Amino acid sequence: MQLLSVNIGKEEPIQAGKQSGKSCIFKKPTQATVAIAEDGLVGDSVTDKENHGGEDQAVYVYSSVDYMWWSQALGKALAPGTFGENLAIADLDSAPLNVGDRLHVGEVVLEITSPRIPCVTLAARMEDPTFVKRFREAERPGVYCRIIQTGIVKVGDSVRLQRYEGETVSMLEMFRNFYNNEIKETDLRRELAAPIAIRSRQDNEERLNKMLAKSQTT
Q1: Phi and psi (nearest 5°) for 122?
Q2: CB neighbours (10 Å) of residue 32?
Q3: Distance between CA atoms of 197 and 16, rounded to whole angstroms?
Q4: Which residues have a Cβ under 8 Å from the Cβ of 69 and sit 6 or more positions away?
Q5: pLDDT at 17
Q6: What tens digit of pLDDT does each residue of 30-69 get?
Q7: What is the DSSP string of the chain?
Q8: Residue 153, strand partner residues
Q9: Comparing C-alpha atoms, which of 147, 117, 113, 148 is closest to residue 133?
Q10: What is d(CA 36, CA 132) in angstroms, rounded to the nearest whole number?
Q11: What is the mean pLDDT of residues 179-187?
Q12: pLDDT class for 19, splitting at 50, 70, 90?
């Protein structure tokens, strides 16, 4: 596998997005060497820090496989950075990846923590109010990663996948579980046993506590 693009975004106005009216989803590709620190790409910005960024979602990765699928579905070519990804990687299918899997990108090591859950900002970026639903139905979420080893990356770097050997869940399973109102306790506990992102952990702990409280009253 190979690194196809490195994309950096600054805060820009966005129509029909979140209340702030601004976003950093508009990523632009760069041919320069880019440093990746513990909180993400140096020079990249995050507007909605409540839901994006941080050590467990420091880098968002999308793939050429998913880009090709979307280009066919939308009937047009899509420029690098369209989905707000920091890194685009050739021949990497995101849905079968697991929490804890690691991507060795040049000298940088990333650990997968969660799938991307679409929001109105993505719909506004795509200029399609139905795109949140389309993204969910497509089940091509891409992956958020934490930084295990900092360093520099550049277009053309080799990429190697290292599978996680502990208890884990796939991106597709985690993505589907997010929308499942009838999720089982065992599925929540499986996610909590894996090295998932802190926001996902907090959400799952809240769902589990509500589930346990409800079972005690029935």
Answers
A1: -65, -40
A2: 11
A3: 28
A4: 138, 140
A5: 59
A6: 999 999 999 999 999 887 777 778 899 999 999 999 999 9
A7: -BEEEEEEE--EE-TTSSTT-EES--EEEE-S-EEEETTEETT---S-TTTS-SGGGSEEEEEHHHHHHHHHHHTS---TTTT--SEEETT--STT-BTT-EEEETTEEEEEEEEPPP-HHHHHHTT-TTHHHHHHHHT---EEEEEEE-EEE-TT-BEEEE---SS--BHHHHHHHHH-TT--HHHHHHHHHS---HHHHHHHHHHHHHHHHHHHH-
A8: 34
A9: 117
A10: 29
A11: 95
A12: low
**Across residues 66-75, what is the average pLDDT?**
96
- 81 neighbors 140 (Cβ within 8 angstroms): no
**pLDDT for the residue numbered 18:** 64
Q: Name the burial class of residue 144, with classes exposed (0-12), middle (13-18) and buried (19+) by CB atoms within 10 angstroms of its CB.
A: buried
Average pLDDT value for residue range 74-81: 95
Residue 15 has pLDDT above 70, yes or no: yes
**Residue in 72, 198, 194, 92 with CA at minimum distance from that of residue 141:** 92
- How far is residue 184's CA from residue 56's CA, in Å, rounded to a whole number? 25
CA angle 72, 76, 80 (to 5 degrees): 95
On average, the pLDDT of the chain sits at 93
Question: Under a CB-based contact definition with an 8 Å cutoff, are residues 93 and 66 in contact?
Answer: yes
Q: Which domains does the chain carry?
A: 3-179 (2.40.33.20)
Q: How far apart (Å, rounded) are the C-alpha atoms in residues 28 and 12?
A: 12
